[in-house]
Amino acid sequence: MERRIALTGPASERAAKRWMDAIYTVPGWRPLHFPLVRVVGLKIRASRVGADPKMVAVTSQNALPALKALWDERPELRRVPHGAVGIATARAMRALGVDPAVVCKAENSDAAHLAEQVLPLTEPGDSILWPRGDRASELRERLREAGRVVVDPVAYRTEDIEGSVVPKNLSAVFFASPSAVRVWLKTPGVPRALAIAIGQSTYAEMAPEYASFARMTLLSRPTPKALAEALTD
């Protein structure tokens, strides 16, 4: 019997394809792309960045279009050491001509671990450029606690997609962000399915609403392969 899992993220079909391809390797499972948030790219004003930072931290591929435009406007920024939150983000940066000096491992691809990688390469008072989403704050908080100066222009905005018709006969739902969890919980007709969280912050958003799900689980690492392994188990 075929079981269906809704992927509420990544938001774009292109980004979701890697996750869907991984699910297709698991016998008996069929993925459905059901995004609950959309990403709107924004422009970073060069004047917002100020003097050359000590490092540039990239925690999402969604920031790369705005960052590329900034590189084109200020080519010297390409020579500043960059940190990438994970392998996929690093690969996308290399395709744009910037090889990151720091790349988090697949099992540690989140803002907290990137902050831990950035700190040994900088000193208190150093400026770090972080092009971010409008709902992100964790990297800034961690770096500022350690005495770094964080310049964090908004590179993209996340918008909720409300009123979508939920696919029928779902056995599971995958959440790639806390925002998607919030939209899911206020969407009419959602089933009480197995809920799978990409990371700790997403799981924390699910936890208080445990009664809304048949079961909850957290991926061992935020990768498509880990999702396939979870479904296999």
List keywords for this structure.
Rossmann fold; 13 strands; 32% helix; 2 domains; 233 residues; single chain; five-stranded parallel β-sheet
Q: How would you describe this protein?
A:
This protein is α/β, with parallel strands linked by helices. The chain has two domains: 3-36 and 161-232, Rossmann fold, CATH 3.40.50.10090; 40-157, Rossmann fold (3-Layer(aba) Sandwich). 32% of the residues lie in helices and 23% in strands. It contains nine helices and 13 strands. It has helices spanning 13-24, 46-49, 64-73, 87-95, 111-118, 138-145, 178-185, 200-206, 224-232, and strands spanning 3-7, 29-33, 37-41, 55-58, 82-84, 102-103, 127-129, 132-133, 149-151, 154-160, 170-175, 194-197, 215-218. It has a five-stranded parallel sheet with strand order 2-1-11-12-13, sandwiched between helices. A five-stranded parallel sheet has the order 6-5-4-7-9, sandwiched between helices. β11, α7 and β12 form a beta-alpha-beta unit. α1 runs parallel beside α9 and α5 (111-118) runs parallel beside α6. It is elongated, with a radius of gyration of 18 Å. The two termini are 16 Å apart. The model has no long low-confidence stretch (mean pLDDT 92).
Report the biggest beta sheet as strand number plus sense, adding barrel if it closes.
5 strands, parallel
- H/E order of the elements? EHEEHEHEHEHEEHEEEHEHEH
CATH topology (fold) name of the largest domain: Rossmann fold
Low-confidence stretches: none
Residues in helices, as a percent range: 25-40%
The structure class reads alpha/beta
Q: What is the C-level CATH assignment of the largest domain?
A: Alpha Beta
Query: Do you know the CATH architecture of the largest domain?
Result: 3-Layer(aba) Sandwich
Strand order of the largest sheet: 2-1-11-12-13
Our Rg estimate from Cα atoms comes to 18 Å
